[in-house]
């Protein structure tokens, strides 16, 4: 494999943890081009995204897909792989209105001879989430009836933007706890995707005045509010995820 500095390896790992809300991965191929209007279920998709991180001289291609497992149950999956290793994220949910109601979230990272896993099971009947993480004790906590997961957040945002929302509040469960996410539309912005200029709505996650982390997402109204770009700024630099092609949207 050759010699690679620990800092570059850390950069690559962190870049794939962009939440999409993928921040998200975290994350990634996301074709949200036919997501739900009102009570209508989302349509299956598969798209590729290019992920570029500050301090890394190469980009990573990740694929994100949405498929229907059975009546009412959907699966979203993100998969990215290169010579450093492999990362896969999976979410299972039932669609209700504009919210993916999560039943399961899983994260797996393999690379450099190590494996890291995290699993979150949500029992909708009892309202309890059970979390397992590598080298960590199992923990559980209560979740609300409308809780989603970090991977499925972008689906909820796309649907709500289609309904005209300018501010969005989501209850998001992760491996540690349920948190309230706040998002706001900051305004229109023109981006170049695959050589084409397209109009987008820029959305910012409101993290608080003192937060060093910043997350921005760009959704394209002309392409059914598909998420075409995501940027996250951390203490280790800037991570940018961009849709590779408009074909198929």
Report the strand count.
15
Element-level helix/strand string: HEEEEEEEEEHEEEEEE
For the biggest β-sheet, the strand order reads: 8-7-6-5-4-3-2-1-15-14-13-12-11-10-9
Described by strand count, sense and barrel closure, the largest sheet is: 15 strands, mixed
Tally of separate helices: 2
Strand content: over 45%
Low-pLDDT residue spans: 1-39
How is the quaternary structure best described? single chain
What is the C-alpha radius of gyration, as a whole number of Å? 17 Å
Task: Sum this structure up briefly.
With 249 residues, this protein is mostly beta strands. It is 8% helix and 55% strand. It has helices spanning 6-15, 153-162; strands spanning 45-53, 60-70, 73-82, 85-96, 99-111, 114-123, 128-133, 136-142, 148-149, 167-173, 178-193, 196-205, 214-220, 226-234, 237-243.
């Amino acid at each position: 494999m050759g010699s690679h500095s620990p800092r570059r390896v850390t950069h690559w790992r962190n870049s794939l943890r962009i939440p999409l809300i993928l921040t998200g991965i975290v994350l990634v191929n996301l074709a949200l081009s036919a997501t739900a209007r009102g009570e209508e279920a989302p349509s299956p998709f598969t798209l590729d995204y290019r992920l570029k991180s500050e301090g890394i001289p190469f980009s990573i291609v990740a694929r994100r897909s949405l498929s229907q497992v059975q009546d009412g149950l959907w699966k979203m999956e993100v998969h990215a792989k290169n010579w450093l290793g492999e990362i896969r994220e999976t979410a299972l949910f039932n669609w209700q209105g504009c919210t993916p109601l999560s039943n399961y979230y899983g994260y797996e990272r393999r690379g450099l001879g190590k494996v890291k896993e995290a699993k979150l099971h949500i029992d909708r009947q009892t309202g309890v989430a059970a979390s397992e993480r590598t080298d960590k004790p199992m923990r559980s906590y209560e979740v609300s009836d409308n809780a989603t997961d970090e991977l499925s957040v972008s689906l909820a945002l796309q649907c709500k933007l289609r309904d005209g929302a300018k501010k969005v509040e989501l209850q998001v469960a992760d491996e540690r706890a349920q948190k309230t996410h706040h998002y706001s539309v900051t305004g229109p912005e023109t981006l170049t995707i695959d050589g084409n200029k397209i109009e987008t709505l820029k959305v910012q996650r409101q993290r608080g005045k003192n937060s060093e982390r910043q997350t921005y997402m760009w959704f394209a109204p002309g392409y059914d509010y598909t998420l075409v770009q995501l940027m996250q700024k951390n203490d280790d630099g800037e991570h940018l995820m961009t849709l590779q092609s408009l074909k198929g949207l």
